[in-house]
Amino acid sequence: MLGMAGALEGIVPAVVTPFRDDERIDYTAWQQHIEMLIASGVHGLFVIGGQGEFFALDEEERAVATRFCAQTAAGRVPVYANVGAVTTQTTVRLARMAEADGVDYIVVITPYYLRPSADELVEHYAEVCRSVRLPVLAYNIPERTGVELTPAILRRVAEAQDNFAGLKDSSGKLDLIPEYVAAGLAVFIGRDHMILEGLKRGSVGAVTACANVVPRAFVDLYHAFRAGNLEEAQHLQALVEPLRQAFGLATFPSVVKEAMNMAGLAGGRCRRPVGPMPDEARGQLAPILERLRAEGYLPEPARLGAGTK
Questions:
Q1: Which DSSP helix (H) or strand (E) runs through 140?
Q2: CA distance 214 to 212
Q3: Who's near 61: CB < 8 A, 6+ residues apart?
Q4: What mean pLDDT comes out for the span 260-281?
Q5: How far apart are CA 52 and CA 107, in angstroms?
Q6: Deepest of 90, 134, 168, 262, by most Cβ within 10 A of its Cβ?
Q7: Distance of alpha carbon 292 from alpha carbon 47, whole angstroms
Q8: Which pLDDT tens digit goes with each residue over 19-66?
Q9: For residue 302, is pLDDT > 80?
């Protein structure tokens, strides 16, 4: 299925939402970052997701931020906007606003805190699909929501709603990818260290947080795989894996932002209660960035290590 700006495929960064020290959105830094990502050859932008701290934004901020991202992308790459909320009513309201503001794909994280039944989840997604004309994707991340979208659940939605197109799957269950595909769904893998394996099993691409830092490495990985150059794809997968493993050094989603800041990119801070990375953790992150710099993948290598002292 096609969106307004292109196909469901490729490397789609899970774009950070930069905040100033006072925790207001830094739109100037955000525009610069989006321009860098597009110039790096990414195939789309996934905005207001987990790495984008959607949970820290109120409803009005989410709507304004989504509009900003769509306007900044200006049709050059598809924009995937997460509109998911706890209630169906709020999700539908955000979905309709995102559609009106020019995004290309509606993405819906499962309701969190609650634990809806399979029937309730089917109706939730069906109602969102009925409320918009754009393609809709589910966002499956049971580790953080406590809710899992099985192939059986999503097959029911797909059979009933023509504009239900696929999912971002962050479950880490690679064996389920062929089942989602068999249900007629496009699957973006949401685990940065499993991208190559996901592609081998039928994923159309990846939604990746680490691509905020080294987008070209992920774009090159994807193109290497599509060209049949598995040796190069495996090299690049191994190259980016330590950055994903570094997520455990501090509270999510601060590590990617700190890596950006250390690399000379404007990641900004996270909204509280998430604070800055401890100095010891930054010290462990520095050599990972140095390796990426040595491979030529940091966008601004001259400033690598800024703020690590």
A1: strand 136-140
A2: 6
A3: 25
A4: 95
A5: 13
A6: 168
A7: 24
A8: 999 999 999 999 999 999 999 999 999 999 999 999 999 999 999 999
A9: no
Instruction: Kindly tell me if the per-residue pLDDT of 301 is higher than 90.
Output: no
CA-CA-CA-CA dihedral for 129, 187, 218, 213, to nearest 10: 40
Position 239 scores a pLDDT of 98
Q: Domain range spanning residue 170?
A: 10-229
pTM: predicted TM-score of the whole model, two decimal places: 0.93
CA of residue 215 relative to chain centroid, distance: 12
How high is the pLDDT of residue 304? 36
CATH number, position 91: 3.20.20.70
Could you list the active site residues?
139, 168
Q: Is residue 252 part of a domain?
A: no
Structural domain count, the chain: 1
- Confidence class of residue 7 from pLDDT cuts 50, 70 and 90? confident
In sequence order, the 6+-apart residues with CB closer than 8 A to the CB of 12 are 42, 43, 44, 45, 46, 78, 80, 188, 205, 206, 207, 208, 211
